[in-house]
Amino acid sequence: MDSISQAALGSAVVLATMGRHTAAWKAALWGAVAGTLPDLDALMDHGDALLNMVLHRAESHSLFYLALLSAPLGWLVARLQGEQQHWRRWWLALALALLTHPLLDVLTIYGTQLLQPFTDYPYGVGSMFIIDPLYTLPLLVGVVAALRSQQGLRWNQAGLVLSTAYLGWSLLAQQHVRGVLEESLRAQNLPSSQVLVTPAPFSTVLWRAVAMGPEHYHEAYFSLLDGGAPVQWTQHPRGSALRAAHATHPQVQRLERFSHGFMRVQASPQGRLHITDLRMGLEPCYTFDFDVGAAQTPDGQAVGPATQQWQRPDLRLGLAWWWQRLSDPTAGPLSRVPGVAAACGG
Predict the structure, then answer these.
(1) pLDDT above 90: percentage of residues in the chain
(2) What is the C-alpha separation between 9 and 32, in angstroms, rounded?
(3) CB neighbours of residue 117 within 10 Å
(4) Do the bridges between strand 285-286 and strand 206-212 make them parallel or antiparallel, or are there none, so unpaired?
(5) 8 Å CB contact between 342 and 312
(6) Contact (Cβ atoms closer than 8 angstroms) between residue 115 and residue 62
(7) pTM of the full predicted structure?
(8) In whole angstroms, how far apart are CA 31 and each of 10, 36, 98, 228, 243?
(9) Which residues lie below 8 Å from residue 140, measured CB to CB, with a gap of 6+?
(10) SS3 for 104?
(11) Cα–Cα distance between 233 and 224 in angstroms, integer?
(12) 23 C-beta neighbours (distance < 10 Å), count
């Protein structure tokens, strides 16, 4: 999740755990620090854009390492605040703030290596978009209320309950939408070996799906406000032949594993090999598209570091489409909005 959500969650958790054993501002401050701490790995540069992607949310998001860190951090904060008598409570509070960070992250689709150092498998449930105001606002309201008065601690607890309930709702909504979309794939006789269902930006009302077939992938959007309108799928080439030709390319292998196979391989007009993570973005604009060398390079030979190609839609066009598609199933996909493809480099 975004940094504001993580800081708000950390503050809310530490406020709820410390209660009246310390000043509310101290609990909120140190909770925000602990809630933000795991994401400092984003400041590390591994010299390669693809490595920066797959090594984010790795050791710094490990439940094992964060649990180990919580004890000395709790002792240090208690000492700095002159509250050594409460160091065990600080330990518990900061442990909860640290551990809830990756547990919240795992509900997004990115990929969080929760079980380092035992496995580097990137877990991603995909029921939450990285920014969702309906999750974050109850936390912020509760934290602000707790800072304003001691009675505000109840508001903080209510904010935690509401935000956690919203996470539960996202999981239920995702399963409902998955059932609708898988039934649509069967009804339309569309081949699919894998199906991804994840929220479109900023809410759990509009959802995006990607279904991987042998030669193509299909994308669809479904809003909980669609009623019984048929699901519209659009077809796009996944670059199977080019993927096979570069089967041993280390960058191709790395992204395929991290994306769980939701990947596209293309050759640019300039003859460059591009690999794209299809999980994050909306056709034709993807957050993680990488140039990994010449498309005609002998199989398996790496050609320098991967470089990320930013593909961001025009914000005005994107928000207008999003607002219309929330309640209008005839709006069509973002890829058909005039000007979007050009803005994304398509």
Answers:
(1) 79
(2) 8
(3) 11
(4) unpaired
(5) no
(6) yes
(7) 0.93
(8) 4, 8, 9, 45, 45
(9) 4, 8, 159
(10) helix
(11) 17
(12) 13
Whether 320 and 332 have beta carbons less than 8 Å apart is answered as: no
Number of H helices, E strands in the chain: 11, 10
pLDDT > 80? residue 301: no
Q: How confident is the model at residue 345 (pLDDT cuts 50, 70, 90)?
A: low
DSSP secondary structure, 3-53, as one string: HHHHHHHHHHHHHHHHGGGS-HHHHHHHHHHHHHGGGGGGG---SSHHHHH
Residue 264, CA distances (Å) to 153, 245, 279, 292, 299 in order: 48, 13, 10, 13, 17
CB 181 within 8 A of CB 195: yes
Return the amino acid letter for 262. F
- Name 333's Cβ contacts closer than 8 Å, sequence gap at least 6: 219, 220, 221, 232, 234, 282, 283
Structure tokens at 70: 């919580």
Tokens of 254: 């790395």
The pLDDT tens digits of the residues spanning 127-162 come to 999 999 999 999 999 999 999 987 889 999 999 999
| Residues shown for the chain | 346
Higher pLDDT, 300 or 153: 153
For helices 24-36 and 133-148, angle between their N-to-C axes, nearest 10 degrees: 150
Centroid of chain to Cα 50:
16
